[in-house]
């Protein structure tokens, strides 16, 4: 399994810790220790992981949806991990008052070459080429993409340059626009840029090699890892609550409690009292708290480590 280095690394290791899988790093090592002897993990750049999983170097991987789309890797997405949320955006100088579509048209009418810097040349190229003004002016020819090793695309009037980081620093000397990921937009603003358009939303996902899924033994192991990770994801959005309630209030309380399947109800040693044990959505807690205060006593709230919907674990098509 390949896990991402960089901005997704810390959250990924924390996710594994929540599954009870212990992942530990030695200094400068890209091969961390993992407590499961059947699982080998290597840390790689998220840009590389989709292609390496597609090619079968790894059976499983964690990367961002942005890099899956950029590389075009043919992998099976198993689980939305719900962290590493960013937007891939088009950004330009704060003084710009035009949309990307209007900017393309403005540069074409002025006879000026539009320069765009990005770490996502394929996504940037496809987005620009899909704009109405681009199609109307240039037809089906693609923007020219430049890298240090090769270039492709025919339209040099819209040029996209591969960036190796610090993309937000490129305008205005090297770029008119940038295509970059942002979480809050703060870094762009600090460099005198603003978001003009959003290309896609991205976050971390668990992906699998399609051939590995056809191997019965590997698929069983993948289902175990899928169950563990899904349990950790589900737990982030849930609360485990225990309350004591008088018998006369029990029915009213049960009617008010949302739960995964149904609450567990147990008699207490004190006659006429019951314990109610259930799991609720985290965003429901404040809504039901006033009702709990009226109907129950002795509320205890836990953050669950994992909630594994074991009966629902499967991989569609395999």
**Number of E-type strands:** 18
Give the terminus-to-terminus CA distance: 19 Å
Structural class from helices and strands?
alpha+beta
Helix proportion? 25-40%
Rg from C-alpha positions? Answer: 25 Å
Q: Uncertain spans, ≥5 residues at pLDDT below 50?
A: none
Average per-residue pLDDT, rounded, comes to 92
Order of strands, widest sheet: 10-9-11-8-12-7-13
Strand content of the residues, in percent? Answer: 25-35%
What is the string of SSEs from the N terminus onward? EHEEEHEHEEHEHHEEEEHEEHHEHEEHE
Sheet with the most strands, sense and barrel status: 7 strands, mixed
Identify the overall geometry.
elongated
Count of helix runs: 11
Account of the 3D structure:
The strands form five sheets. A seven-stranded mixed beta sheet has the order 10-9-11-8-12-7-13. Helix content is 32%, strand content 31%. The model has no long low-confidence stretch (mean pLDDT 92). By secondary structure, the chain is α+β, with helices and mostly antiparallel strands. Helix 4 packs parallel to helix 6 and helix 10 packs antiparallel against helix 11 (285-295). The chain has helices spanning 9-18, 49-54, 65-71, 100-110, 121-130, 132-138, 186-190, 210-213, 216-236, 247-256, 285-295; strands at 2-4, 23-24, 33-34, 42-44, 60-64, 76-80, 86-93, 114-118, 143-146, 151-152, 155-162, 177-182, 193-202, 204-208, 238-246, 264-267, 273-281, 296-302. The radius of gyration is 25 Å and the shape is elongated.
